[in-house]
Design a protein that fits this description.
The structure is a single chain. With 333 residues, the chain is of the alpha+beta class. It has two domains: 161 residues, no CATH class; 119 residues, Immunoglobulin-like. The chain contains seven helices and twelve strands. The strands form three sheets. A six-stranded antiparallel β-sheet has the order 1-2-4-8-7-6, with no helix packed on it. About 12% of the residues have low confidence.
Length: 333
Amino acid sequence: MSYPPRIAAFLLLAMLVATTCLAADTAADSPKSVVNQGPVTLSVSVDRQLAQVAYPMQLVVEVTAPQGTRVELPRLPEQLGDFDVRGQETLRDLPTAASSDNRLWVLKATLETLKTGQLQIPALEVHFATNQQATAFESIRSKPIEIQIASVLEDRPDPTKIRDIKDTVDLPVPEQGSSAWLSIALGGIAAGVAAAIAMVLLAKPRRGIAPAAWVLEQIDDLEQLLADETADTQLIYNELVDVVREYFEFEYDVPTRTRTSAEFLTEAVHTVQLGETPRRRLASLVSIADDIKFACYGVGSSQIQQAFADARAFVEECQQHREALETEKRDVA
């Protein structure tokens, strides 16, 4: 069975390269702020201290107070500091396991951000009244929580800048020994890998072919590998995201291959002004690719299938976005 150049390179590289990863846990001890005011305790925590850009984090606000206390949990805005609030739910006046005299109030929310660096979840304020006859509420306020959002740098070679390959050099043929066949085989494989890598680096849109048609061809080629049970799904996933990056650059003339994941997503949101659905789809793809590259993250069959579906849907959404922009320009003209 023959494969396109990009796939042939993967097959050769997969036979020669074997990597072992130590398990990496980005969810370190959950950062927490605990404040007491009289019999009332306010606890605010996040499920991870280090996260990738666009990675969902769980924020939990818990208030423990004596039975009969009136508690008003905060209603989070859509934007909480540098974080987007994607959903929230509240549980009120629950019994606690520690004491039958205390009750529990809980607020849970999912946070995401496209910013990187040392970010801060702002202080949250809860109002309460331990006396049911009280006409005014007291306030208790948490402390801000620091969260590190990782920025991942990429060093992908530019396919337009390939160094010349030196001419072949004639070497004397050694006497054939019992291991000569192995040396010859390894030499042949090495030469094949070099040629395959060169073909991969040159695999960019042909003159005259639309970027969308090109990337869909690349996606189809990559998907052929999934039929092979020995295929490296991590390599396939990363290459899938790389061709999506290339497509985006060719389609919108916006540099992406020299950008970090966060910068790439920022370009998609602000420069190209993609809508919410393709933005979230793209954030999911690049976030998992970063986890694979730098945290030895594994990818299952259902996840890789979803990634191919997301990649195709993203291309279609970009085409719709471009057509909408062109229609708007014609209407203005």
